[in-house]
Amino acid sequence: MSLAHYLTLAIALFTIGLIGVVLRRNLLVAFMSIELMLNGVNLSFIAFSRYLGDMQGQMAAFFIVILAAAEAAVGLAIIVLLFRRQGSVQSNLFQNLKDRIEV
Amino acid sequence: MTLAWIILLPLLGAIINGYHAMSCTLRKQKVITGMVNFVGVGLPFIAFLIALSQGIPFILGAEEPLRETLFSWITVGNLHIEAGLCLDRLSTLMILIITGVGTLIHLYSIGYMKCDPGYAKYFAYLNLFLTSMLILVLADNLVLMFLGWEGVGLCSYLLIGFWFEDKAKAQAGKKAFIVNRIGDVGFLLAIFGLGVLLLPGISEGASIFNFEYIESKMSLIAPSTIFWMSSPIILTLLLFVGATGKSAQIPLYVWLPDAMAGPTPVSALIHAATMVTAGVYMIARLDFLFDAAPATLNVIAIIGASTALFASLIAIVQNDIKKVLAYSTVSQLGYMFLAMGVGAYAYGVFHLMTHAFFKACLFLGSGSVIHAMSGEQDIRKMGGLKKALPITSMTFLIATITIAGLPPFAAFFSKDHILWKTYSHGHTVLWVMGLLAAFGTAFYMFRLYFLTFTGKSRVSEEAKAHLHESPFNMTFALVVLAVLSAVAGFLGLPEVLGGHDWIKHWLNLGAGSAKAHSAHDHAMELILMGVSVAVAACAILLAFLLYRNGLEGPERRARAMQPIHNLLTNKFYVDEIYDAIIVRPIRSLSQSVFFRVVDQKLINEVFVNGSGKVLSWLGSCVSRIQNGFVNRYAFYFLLAVSVFLGIWVIN
Asked: Domain ranges in chain B?
């Protein structure tokens, strides 16, 4: 399998994640889509690392894994709190978090 | 540094006294009079001594000017302006008058201002006045001169409005300041004009506003034009506008009579040693430029003669002792400008000097009278003061004879020189005007003298109670000035009377002074001299006959000539005319256009509020993007990133 295959898969993962983030209203799904995007990036890092024989790409992948874990902890906590408040995690229910405009 | 000290000493006095005045007011302490006297009078006196020590070589005949460059003041591109001082014969005469007469006036002020709460402040201003005037006179370039020029304007404002609690006096100060400002615009424009002419062809490091440099470039200035008119004429006319402001000529003389609101020694200082002489000095300093503009000289001569006549007519009917003297100053300044206008610069300066002596003496004398009368200035309420004020009346009489132009007192020589030069220049009409003004001068001055010092006393009982001769420091100044005004004329003893006309040869100003010499008609000069003495004598006799016995007779006659008398008492309605054609239109224009439209509508609504409104409207447009849909934010992200990536890829 060549580098191109890996990269195609990575782009596919990233794009699916991106579409999920933009289109889905359910915050939990959007959250999982972000994980997909991160993993797509991870995959491309590791593929390049193997291809170039450079360990730095794998280092970056580890960092992203750690970051994703931290993000999951904080993000899930927020989602839980939002759910407690509204009984749902639909993003359009939380519009009133925006800044109020007074002209 | 010696020349600089002449300026710095009064400045030091101003700073020390000003600081003292301020700290005393803040801590509510009493002013330490001794210290103020020592600083306020002592430092100008030391400056006078230095001026004398520096001036003696020039008096004895030295010609090479003494120059001092203090520091480089302004350097922009190839424009260099240096703070440089220059002492030559003309400025020697001036600094001796300024520091000498100035010191006497300071000395006099000790007595006059004794009980005033603003004592230290007064001396601070007075010293600052001397400083500014000395800068003006010692400057070796136009820009530094302008600094002094503005300085005297500022100080006159401060001192005329010295008793600013009185609204009328504060307004008189403002009037002086504003009228002077109008003149200053002319002066400033002339400086700019010179800069425009000279700056393009400047050699490296030269200081273009230097008088010497301007003189050396006259060949360049003379043929050039500004707005299709010969540039010497434009420049000198603009400078003359400045001079009419400072030296109180038609049409800008109106501030000077109102300037009487200040303390009397201040009037003496403004009229004798500083301020009003600035215009005359400036013309004498730039004689080479004015020589190149005969048209301007004619304008100056006409304005000068008209001012002399006009002011002397007004002075005839004034009843305020200081107002009479104020109009007399305007009239005498008219003579000086007449002299300048006929190219007799040296005689103008000569009259400036004699005028400084006798006018200072007259003002200080009137101050002494006012002091004795506890503030009364109306000569209708005086009379018979000779007994109570022997020294004052004696010195006042000497100065009055001097200004009337009787030989051998000083003004006879100086005024007669001017009239003779006017006549020999062919300006017969102006000569007649000058002669009439001389008649008026002798008449109103002796009217003033008779009404104040002789005849029956019309003094009120309460004022009579503490009528007293002034203290020694006041009478001392009077005596010195009276002696000076009696003898100073011999400096310019004309050749026809066996003198050498020393002052003219010594000052050696203007191109005309050398060549007019040959065309001397001795017989004619003697005849004219006789005429002017006769005129003065007639005027004095008339004043004696009319006013010897007080006011009843003259007042009856005044009623018979009601219209003329009204015209004169109201000063030809000049203030009213100015008010109607200048002040009011400007005020209504400011009110209706500049305030209502420009300020309220344009600046306030359009610029200030308008810019705020536009920005907040723009902000509200953009803030619509922030709609609370998190997914859409992510979409904006996506859009932006793809745009930037797209640009990156294309490049």
From this structure: 64-84+164-573, 592-650
Q: How far is CA B605 from the centre of its chain?
A: 43
Q: For residue range B548-594, list pLDDT tens digits in order.
A: 777 777 777 777 777 777 887 788 888 888 888 888 998 899 888 88
**Dihedral sign from CA coordinates of B577, B581, B586, B589:** positive
CB contact under 8 A, A97 and B627: no
In total, chain B counts a number of residues equal to 651
Q: How many residues does chain A have?
A: 103
Rounded-to-integer distance, Cα B203 and Cα B207, Å? 9
Residue of A nearest to B624 (CA): A101
Q: What are phi and psi of B85, to 5 degrees?
A: -115, 150
Instruction: Tell me the CB-side half-sphere exposure of residue B443, using CA atoms within 13 A.
Output: 21
- Paired tokens of B297: 């000289």
- The two structure tokens encoding residue A61: 């992948």
Q: If interface means Cβ-Cβ distance under 8 Å, which residues of chain B face chain A? A: 616-617, 619-620, 623-624, 626-631, 634-635, 638
Give the residue from B614, B617, B631 with the most A CB atoms within 10 Å of its CB, the best one to mutate. B631
Amino acid identity of B391? Answer: I
Instruction: Using an 8 Å CB-CB cutoff, list chain B residues near A98.
Output: 626-628
What are B314-345's pLDDT values in tens digits?
998 888 889 999 999 999 999 999 999 988 88
How many angstroms separate the CA atoms of B240 and B247, rounded? 10
In three-state secondary structure terms, B69 is strand
The pLDDT value recorded for residue B465 is 77
Residues from A contacting B (CB-CB < 8 Å) are 18, 21-25, 27, 30, 91-92, 94-99, 101, 103
The ipTM of this complex is: 0.81
Task: Tell me the C-alpha distance between A12 and B578, whole Å.
Answer: 90
How many Å is the Cα radius of gyration of chain B? 29
Q: How far is CA B501 from CA B406, B478, B491, B492, B525, in A?
A: 18, 27, 7, 5, 14
H helices present in B199-275, as ranges: 211-216, 218-221, 231-246, 255-258, 264-268
**Residue B257: is the preceding peptide bond cis (ω within 30°)?**
no
* pLDDT band at residue A45 under the 50/70/90 scheme: very high
Threshold 0.90, pTM exceeds: no
What sections of B508-547 are H helices per DSSP? 512-515, 522-547
Distance CA B558, CA B542 (A): 15
B225-226/B229-230 β-pairing: antiparallel
**DSSP one-letter code for B86:** E
